[in-house]
Amino acid sequence: MTGRSVQSNLWWFTAAPLIWVAHFVLSYGTASIYCAKAAEPGDLGPVRVIIAALSALALGALAVVVRRELKRAPLGDASALSSFGLPSDRAQFLAFATLLLSGLAAVGVVFVAMPAVFFETCR
C-alpha cells in the first residue's frame, strides 16, 4: 500500500463526520436565521422543506461513502479483521471503521432532522 493510498483512505474515513457536521451547521443555521429574521413567530414550513432536502442530500452522500467502503471491506469474514500485520489488513480495517462511522453519521443526520419534523413554529 502506498502513502497516497493511505491518505485517500483517511480522507474517506473523515468524510462521514464531515457530512454530518455540514448537515448540522446548515440545518440549524438555516432555522436560526429564518426564525431571527421573521417579524412574528412564523411557520417553519419553508425551513422544514430545506432541512428535508439537506437531510436527503446528506444521507445520499453517506450512501456513496458506504457503497465505496463495502467494496473495500467484505463483511462476510470477521476473522479477516483480526490480524493487522499486512497493509491490506490495515486498509480493510480502515474501510470497516469507515462503514461503522458512516452508520453513526447517518443516525446523527436523522436526529438533527427530527426537530424539523416535530416543531411547527419558531417558538
Describe the protein in words.
- The structure is a single chain.
- The protein is mostly helical and 123 residues long.
- The chain has one domain (3-118).
- Helices cover 77% and strands 0% of the residues.
- It has helices at residues 3-37, 45-72, 87-118.
- Helix 1 packs parallel to helix 3 (87-118).
- The longest helix is centred in the first third of the chain and has 35 residues, at 3-37.
- The radius of gyration is 19 Å and the shape is elongated.
- The termini are far apart.
Structural descriptors:
0% strand, mainly alpha, 123 residues
Radius of gyration: 19 Å
User: What's the total count of β strands?
Assistant: 0
What is the molecular shape?
elongated
The termini sit apart by: 54 Å
Number of domains: 1
Largest beta-sheet details:
none
Question: What is the residue-averaged pLDDT?
Answer: 83
List segments where confidence is low: pLDDT < 50 over at least 5 consecutive residues: none
Structural class based on helices, strands and sheet pairing = mainly alpha
Total of DSSP H or I helical runs spanning 4+ residues: 3
Oligomer: single chain
